[in-house]
Amino acid sequence: MDFAQLSGGRSRRALALALCVWSLISLSCAARLTDSSRQKLDVQKHLNRLNKPAVKSIKSPDGDIIDCVHISQQPAFDHPYLKDHKIQMRPNYHPEGLFNENKVAEKTKERSNPQAQLWHANGRCAEGTIPVRRTRKDDILRASSVKAYGRKKQRSIPKSADPDLANESGHQHAIVYVNGDKYYGAKATINVWEPKIQQPNEFSLSQLWILGGSFGEDLNSIEAGWQVSPDLYGDNNTRLFTYWTSDAYQATGCYNLLCSGFIQINSEIAMGASISPVSGLRGSQYDISILVWKDPKEGHWWMQFGNDYVLGYWPSFLFSYLADSASMIEWGGEVVNSEPEGQHTSTQMGSGRFPEEGFGRASYFRNIQVVDSSNNLKAPKGLGTFTEQSNCYDVQTGSNGDWGHYFYYGGPGKNPNCP
């Protein structure tokens, strides 16, 4: 074989190798393009599912778009079991013994109950429609996947009789709880703040939990309160929220109206919309009242916001244990501690101050009550408290004539005693 033949063979092999590499690169690029196109298509499909046709749209001062959607077109009715559901426009029964919030407001002039949301400044939705916070493409893209958008990360819940039931690595709580009986609802008036969040993937919330079943893979939970969650909403505003699950946050449930389930009947209040005003240190204190209860006749779980707004209901068929009753009620705060740079987060819970600082500085829950089997609201018996690290976030209970059973809670997170 002469040099020319040898050289020609090498050239052909080099050319073949180059073509092979080019093909692999092309295939890889095509796959990436296909993945990108598929993601865009999935995101758009999800946006189309969530954003129903609007009768009118209202631009909120905080940048939100609130769509006024006909009540029969809301996301709840994407559920196969709700295709022929007749909307129940009011509960058959309210719990007896609702605490008179007006009496408290009259006695304590520096406190008021804000049922205003920022979008109200620019309009309202008409009767027969419900306000729905419009989901944007960026909202979904902040989630780890289209499927994960609007859902809590799956929890690994230990089967334990202790109240740290819903704790998993990275989540911390300061809660008051009651168990050992059958419960048919809960109520609380919750002080509203705007806690600082250190990392976008962290959140801070204050809520009540209505829990049923064991704390394994079949936990039922209905949750409502306020939260600051940059990941979910794209900002640091304090927002009204709800959540539900019937399988310990695995595949069912979501925040607000981001899946089918909760049926809203109210045209005034938008789930996930900003609450205004919020409390300030040594300044005016603002709170919201939330009541969740089980209608004794239909069995649905209803939610009321403030004294005037019955928002809607979770149909009983969504749940297994809660189709009957709850076995535990919790009230309090929760944060995500992602341990940035190997240290405890400085994400605040409540006002970011410890309970012992008291009114005007520490955040509170007041007039906490449960609903019993006779549909009566009453003071809870045998309250317990729980926090993972009291040097980071803590809780202190009390009771008096005006506030009934109450507690202060929260904290700054990272501090010299919480490294």
From TrEMBL:
<feature type="signal peptide">
    <location>
        <begin position="1"/>
        <end position="30"/>
    </location>
</feature>
<keyword id="KW-0732">Signal</keyword>
<dbReference type="Pfam" id="PF14365">
    <property type="entry name" value="Neprosin_AP"/>
</dbReference>
<dbReference type="Pfam" id="PF03080">
    <property type="entry name" value="Neprosin"/>
</dbReference>
<dbReference type="InterPro" id="IPR053168">
    <property type="entry name" value="Glutamic_endopeptidase"/>
</dbReference>
<dbReference type="InterPro" id="IPR004314">
    <property type="entry name" value="Neprosin"/>
</dbReference>
<dbReference type="InterPro" id="IPR025521">
    <property type="entry name" value="Neprosin_propep"/>
</dbReference>
<protein>
    <submittedName>
        <fullName>PREDICTED: carboxyl-terminal peptidase</fullName>
    </submittedName>
</protein>
<feature type="domain" description="Neprosin PEP catalytic">
    <location>
        <begin position="165"/>
        <end position="419"/>
    </location>
</feature>
